[in-house]
Specification:
422 residues; alpha/beta; Rossmann fold; Hect, E3 ligase catalytic domain fold; 3 domains; 14 helices
Length: 422
């Protein structure tokens, strides 16, 4: 007669921060209660695993995945947990547990009030209890979506209110009201924008007032442009964003729709939110070495004697962090030379993505073939530097940008020089 394998247990405790688990016992409480049961019933616990993670999606819990792996490896053959829904609230993770039972690697699951062994009836009961937990999750998701839709139809935008408003919960009712500290500045921001003030001029004025964001910091240019493009301020909102579903807000409008449309028609302000419409190689890739803002680009055209135009591209700090950043403009041709020089000098220290490495290798195979065909050596060639030089001279703007993105490092521009941030 085959000797039965003794039971050894892993104590598994889980709690997530989601609203549907706020009433669940804390992880430490679960462990304390289950250790008391183990002592009472003479259960041997070989390991304790705990995590704070939702169990709604399959395969997303690192500690649970460790539990499954160690059960499969025979480290223990039993699980001690507070309740079945601590283990699974989805079909995928439940299937992993049942498969281990079918293989004889998981002998028993013991909870606060029940024991599940490898028998058809007890496995069926386990699946029912865990499936019930999944059903509750699915119903909650449907109810939440229904509640959000109903809230929007009533005129209340879900989530945190835009700057200038605050979320209020009073007498069981949740609504959005003007922020007594900030609301008065919003109409003035729109008014000045409608008069043709640039974003930087508005920022400079705001910096002289008491107006700050919720963190107590001065507004950046991007935050100002977000305000000027937010329809919430005249009483309408889209939810979810870019869904095409618009709602009439029940909150108090801070500006008129006519003023909003006037600002929208003012190209001097709104056009600044559309940076990126032109094609540039390195725009948005490098960072300013002085203030940390993004580096943007713009083009200039110089008339020639023959009537044609010569195009020049210049890169400069967006000044989103510091509007008076001292960094100067850098010509794109100079920037290409700086990039190539840096690559040639530091190529051994540069790490690149798998995709970029593959492109370098494919390119160098062609170079090797051509050189060897002409009886020349490739010994002293630097494949990466050769590829970068080729792309900078012959590649499209998109190809040139991809090269820089493929380098696993941040590049900064300071005093018209390019540096690799360590």
């Amino acid at each position: 007669m085959e000797k039965e394998t003794p039971l050894t247990y892993c104590l598994y405790a889980r709690k997530s921060s989601e609203s549907d688990e706020r009433q669940a016992m804390s992880v430490d409480s679960q462990i304390k209660e289950m250790e008391a049961i183990a002592e009472r019933d003479g259960i041997k616990i070989t390991e304790v695993l705990k995590e704070s993670h939702s169990a709604k999606d399959s395969g997303q819990r690192p500690t649970f995945n460790q539990l499954i792996s160690e059960l499969g490896a025979g480290k223990y053959n039993g699980i001690l947990t507070w309740a079945p829904d601590r283990l699974s609230r989805n079909a995928g993770d439940l299937g992993s547990l049942v498969d281990l039972m079918d293989q004889g690697k998981l002998k028993e699951i013991r909870t606060n009030g029940q024991i599940f062994k490898n028998s058809p009836n007890e496995k069926f009961l386990l699946m029912i209890l865990c499936s019930q937990a999944k059903l509750e999750n699915d119903n909650k998701s449907i109810n939440v979506k229904r509640g959000i839709k109903s809230k929007c139809e009533q005129g209340w935008r879900p989530g945190k209110a835009p700057l200038g408003y605050i979320n209020r919960a009073f007498g069981g009712v949740k609504d959005i009201i003007p922020d007594p500290e900030r609301a008065e500045f919003i109409p003035e921001v729109f008014s000045r924008a409608a008069q043709g003030w640039s974003g930087r001029r508005i920022k400079k004025w705001l910096d002289t007032t008491t107006f700050t964001n919720r963190s107590g910091n001065r507004l950046t240019l991007s935050q100002i442009f977000l305000i000027l493009n937010n329809t919430f301020y005249y009483g309408e909102f889209e939810y979810p964003e870019r869904s095409g579903k618009w709602f009439k807000g029940a909150h108090k409008a801070l500006v008129s729709k006519e003023l909003f449309e006037q600002v929208k028609a003012n190209r001097s302000v709104i056009n600044k939110t559309k940076w990126g419409s032109k094609n540039f190689a390195f725009k948005g890739i490098f960072k300013c070495g002085s203030c940390g803002s993004d580096i943007t680009a713009e083009e200039k055209f110089k008339p020639l004697k023959d009537g044609s135009l010569r195009r020049h591209v210049y890169y400069h700090c967006t000044r989103q962090v510091k509007y008076d950043c001292p960094e100067k403009y850098v010509n794109e041709k100079i920037l290409r030379k700086k990039l190539l020089g840096l690559v040639k000098k530091s190529s051994e220290k540069i790490t690149i993505t798998t995709e970029l490495k593959r492109n370098v290798e494919n390119h160098f195979k062609i170079i090797e073939y051509q050189l060897r065909k002409n009886g020349l050596s490739t010994t002293n060639l630097n494949p990466f530097a050769e590829y970068v030089e080729f792309i900078l001279e012959n590649g499209s703007y998109s190809d040139q940008g991809d090269v820089v993105r493929g380098i696993r490092s941040q590049f900064i521009i300071k005093s018209k020089n390019l540096f690799q941030k360590i």
